[in-house]
Structure formats: C-alpha cells, structure tokens
Design a protein that fits this description.
5 helices; Mor transcription activator family protein; 91 residues; 2 domains; mainly alpha; 0% strand
C-alpha cells in the first residue's frame, strides 16, 4: 500500500467534506470486500508454502525421517510434524 495525495485523486468538494472529520491527518480507506485478496495471494508465498509442505509430506511418506526433514527444510521438529498432520488430513 502506498500513500496518495488526496488532491491528486479526489474532487475538491470531497476533500473539504473529509477535512470536516480529519483535518491534516492520515486516513486509511479499506478495500471493498469484493476486492480483498487472501494472505499471500499477491506475493505467491502461499503457493510456495503449499508446494513445500506437499514435498515434506511426500518425502515423509517415502521414509525420510522427521529429523532429516528438519535439516533439509530448516524447520523445527514441531513444524515438520504439524505440516505432516495437516497434509494427512487433506488426503
């Protein structure tokens, strides 16, 4: 999110109306609910994590130990076990 100058995008009468409530302050205008995006949708991190988690689960099913997975993916044992539990529930 970046800041925009109100005078560059809003008509003067709307600026004056807003100034009655917030004069010289910052105002956050939220997105319409129809335009909201899920976490990680813009950056693609959600897809990357899902792919990583599936890879962890597949390796686990192939016999790779939790300890080996912690070293391969630089995660704690707790995190690896949580991912395995979550992936089991998806199948």
């Amino acid at each position: 999110m970046k800041y925009e100058k109100a005078q560059n995008i809003l008509p003067q009468d709307i600026i004056e109306l807003i100034q009655q409530y917030v004069d010289g302050g910052y105002l956050y205008i939220p997105r319409k609910s129809d335009n909201k995006k899920a976490w990680g949708e813009n950056s693609g991190i959600k897809n990357s994590l899902n792919k990583r988690n599936k890879e962890i689960f597949n390796r686990y099913r192939q016999g790779v130990s939790v300890e080996e997975l912690t070293e391969q993916f630089y995660l704690t044992e707790y995190s690896i076990r949580r991912i395995i539990r979550a992936e089991k529930q998806l199948i």
